[in-house]
Amino acid sequence: ARMRVAVVGAGVSGLTATKCCLEEGLEPTCFEQSRDIGGLWRYTEYIEAGRPSLYPSVISNTSKEMSAFSDFPYPEDFPVFLPNAQLLEYLRHYAERFGLREHIKFGTTVVSVRKRPDFATTGQWDVVTEADGKQTSHIFDAVMVCSGNFSEPSLPLHCFPGIERFQGQYFHSRQYKHPDVFQGKRVLVVGMGNSGVDIAVEASRVATKVTISTSRGAWVLSRMFDNGYPWDMVFNTRLMSLIRNSLPGPLSWGLINYRANQWFKHENYGLQPENRYFLPVLNDDLPSYILTGRITIKPGVKEFKDNSVVFHNCPGEEPIDIVVFCTGYDISFPFLEEAVVKVENKHASLYKYVFPTHLQRPTLAVLGLIKPLGAIMPVTEMQARWVTRVFKGRRANMSSPMYQNAVQNGHVLFGLSFDEVLKTDCLVYTDKLASFIGAKPSVLGLLCRDPRLALTVFFGPCTPYQYRLGGPGRWEGARQAILTQWDRTLKPTRTRVPAGSSSSCPSLLTVVGFLLLLAALVFGF
């Protein structure tokens, strides 16, 4: 009999999990509480409990070539950075192309996932779902949790003394949809993640005054890097990754700081992060809005008064009408027992961020909980490719001594803190998982067989198609997709001049890269 797998959620992770199950000959049933696919990327005007909530202007922070599933490139005429509606359209195409919809049960909430009494021998789970007020129980051989981490807003009001006497309006960024609520108001945005900066920029177009309060600052990158190339296609290359990881920590961070400060000097704008190791925020407008006085940056909030706010180390108080708390999200798995995934202080003990470390059998996996400095799609897809092979009992590194130790000692070996570890270098991480299943591209191997491809793989952006060149799930179109990645990137913007054949990589970058590579080899070893 085929192995039955429950997939929780039909967003980015759930869709690719369902597809990987089908690819490995497993039998997936995907439960989605809402009436449609897309998860985070499906915009709704109203806010639904337990579901992520988007504002209409959200645009992806990663470029389309880097955000594709590895065997399904975006249409060439799609813009390079995708408005949420087009990202959703892509997910719909994906679901259609691989026949995923027939495996999804819509309007069905997963109420509980519990180990069966004979779990130690069978690894099976009792899953209870609810649809139209009726509960049903099922038995599954394995479970893939793809419910994301943008549903439970984190609003620690106790950290903001005086908020209870504040007369104005306040809400969490999850409630935000349109900037018109800020018309003519004095707005305070607390927190400086991507949403915080987006909302501040939008508000400043209609508000009287906008202030961002951040206790720790942030690196801000633009979607556009040197010569107008997408930031992630320049930043996430195998060459750059090798340099970042061969240099001693402080040097490699120095390089990143230098890059961030090239666009604008952060300390002059009040943004210099206290601690260097922060995930950058992506926003194209912030520095110019600070420069034109539309947005002011202040330190953390000390306390609220009736109609104003006091900041740490700042004399006087600032009058405020409306506060937006962009304080992020808590991770929660309401359908799992505490014992399965222990989340303490935003930490979960998961081997490679995927498998709970203390289960006797690896038949439950959590996908897409990672915040890479790059696109989530290829990372979560690789997690799914690995997990489905572990479920099938393929040699896929669950017998490694490291995992066994983690299980025995109940170690939080890969303590997953949503603010620190999750900034794992996505290239190194994806490579690691790819090597577990034998899908990691070998640059040296390619160099002999296909030098042009090898150079593109090494010097060019590390696009997801690289993980389909060989191994299980090999895709015939991978080589062609890699060699045409710049064409698809330039097509939507070279709309007035005929598109010539593009250079496969900015040439100066290659030369500098090669010199840096030599330096890295000389000093790194």
TrEMBL record:
It comes from the Eukaryota. It is found in: Endoplasmic reticulum membrane. Belongs to the FMO family. Its main location: endoplasmic reticulum. One of its GO terms (molecular function) is N,N-dimethylaniline monooxygenase activity. This is Flavin-containing monooxygenase 1. Its EC number is 1.14.13.148, 1.14.13.8. The lineage of its organism: Eukaryota, Metazoa, Chordata, Craniata, Vertebrata. It is a single-pass membrane protein. One of its GO terms (cellular component) is endoplasmic reticulum membrane. Gene3D superfamilies: FAD/NAD(P)-binding domain (3.50.50.60). Its cofactor is FAD. InterPro entries: FAD/NAD-bd_sf (IPR036188), Flavin_mOase (IPR000960), Flavin_mOase-like (IPR020946), Flavin_mOase_1 (IPR002253), FMO-like (IPR050346). It catalyses: hypotaurine + NADPH + O2 + H(+) = taurine + NADP(+) + H2O; hypotaurine + NADH + O2 + H(+) = taurine + NAD(+) + H2O; N,N-dimethylaniline + NADPH + O2 + H(+) = N,N-dimethylaniline N-oxide + NADP(+) + H2O; trimethylamine + NADPH + O2 = trimethylamine N-oxide + NADP(+) + H2O. Keywords: Endoplasmic reticulum, FAD, Flavoprotein, Membrane, Monooxygenase, NADP, Oxidoreductase, Transmembrane, Transmembrane helix. Broad spectrum monooxygenase that catalyzes the oxygenation of a wide variety of nitrogen- and sulfur-containing compounds including xenobiotics. Catalyzes the S-oxygenation of hypotaurine to produce taurine, an organic osmolyte involved in cell volume regulation as well as a variety of cytoprotective and developmental processes.
